[in-house]
Amino acid sequence: MADRSLLDRRRGVNAVGAAASATTVGALPVYLVGALSVQIGRDLDLSSAAIGTIVATFWGTSALFSVAAGRFGDLVGVRTGLGLCAVLASLSLMGTAVLGWSAWWLASTLAVAGVANAAAHPYSNMLLTQAVPTRRRGLAFGIKQAAIPLATLLAGLAVPALAVTVGWRWAFVSAAVLALLPLLMLRGVDRGRQHRRPMASRRAHRPAPLPPCCADSCASRL
């Protein structure tokens, strides 16, 4: 019983980590563009209006794909959908670093990131409701909501740490590696489910006890 409780607790912690990290990396691309707008605009000769249009592309894509992303999660499963969200966010960040040589390319990669952001919220919410006990869900959702300020914090720190020193593209490369963190957390959630399946399967195959009337009837026949 103690081992099962420990596994449930670890599974809940991994689920909170996966939800929070997926929400962070889903919103990180647009905040990076905003924080690094000076360096990006100077490098690509983009005006403030162009940067604003690129940022609007991200939020517009997120709004358009939110409902479809939720339905897709119902089809493929929450964990698969959240893993795809992390991979998509990582690809968009790496694509911004490698292919972001014009406003059109930046808008395209941010549109991909908008799809990942649209999927991150419903998938992470569903994961928390599945893996976290009811008495802990308030704390779990509070940690998950703190992911958005964390994304802005990381974007702000990228300016003095990377953009000013080695270039703004390396900030996106670093964020692309960070975007794969939810995959590691999801492995911990799946591992907790695998440990619980044998007990569940034994209970499923255990014959149900006979009602008292049937038990008395069988005993009289013997």
UniProtKB/TrEMBL annotation:
Protein name per Swiss-Prot or TrEMBL: MFS transporter
Pfam families: MFS_1
Intracellular or extracellular location(s): Cell membrane
Spans through the membrane: 12-34, 46-69, 76-95, 101-120, 141-164, 170-189
Keyword Nucleotide-binding: no
Species assigned in the record: Blastococcus brunescens
Chief location: membrane
Keyword line: Membrane, Transmembrane, Transmembrane helix
Membrane topology: Multi-pass membrane protein
Database matches in InterPro entries: MFS, MFS-Transporter, MFS_dom, MFS_trans_sf
Start and end residues of each Major facilitator superfamily (MFS) profile domain: 15-222
